[in-house]
Amino acid sequence: MAVNYDDIEVGNKMPVYTSAPITRTHLVRYAGASGDFNPLHHDETFIKMIGSKNVIAHGMLIMGIVGEAITSWIENKYLRRFNTRFLSMTEPADLDDMENTKDRATIIVSGEVVKKYEENGEKRILCDIIAQDALGSKKLSGFFIAALP
Description:
The protein is an alpha+beta fold. The model has no long low-confidence stretch (mean pLDDT 95). The longest helix has 13 residues, at 59-71. The radius of gyration is 17 Å and the shape is elongated. It has a single domain (5-148), classed as Thiol Ester Dehydrase, Chain A, CATH 3.10.129. It has helices spanning 24-34, 44-49, 59-71, 98-105; strands at residues 13-18, 79-86, 107-119, 122-133, 138-148. Helix content is 26%, strand content 34%. The chain has a five-stranded antiparallel beta sheet.
């Protein structure tokens, strides 16, 4: 169902989007797709050497999940701007202890329309967004602008 400008009001919430738990497999796949092989995302020896306890997800992977959340509600062709700020790191779920680690690796994206306006002959909305894990730790904040029919 297409989202129309006249059907949107300031204060409307975008549908909440919940990702599957991010695993090390996701990190390997993302590294291959993006070319980002920073050892922070895969190398246990490096992680221990710098005093960290676990590898972390790529920030751009989390941003990609947020983009997927947005485009599951607003068609990609209507997006005009997408801006984010990274807030904290995301550890992958441990497959050997999935029940106890999945909440730290599940990303929940929510948003709220904060402005409706016209610009360049388009009817636009501004929507604030937040991504957090299932434990409530905020991972990313930002906004998007969409021109709607």
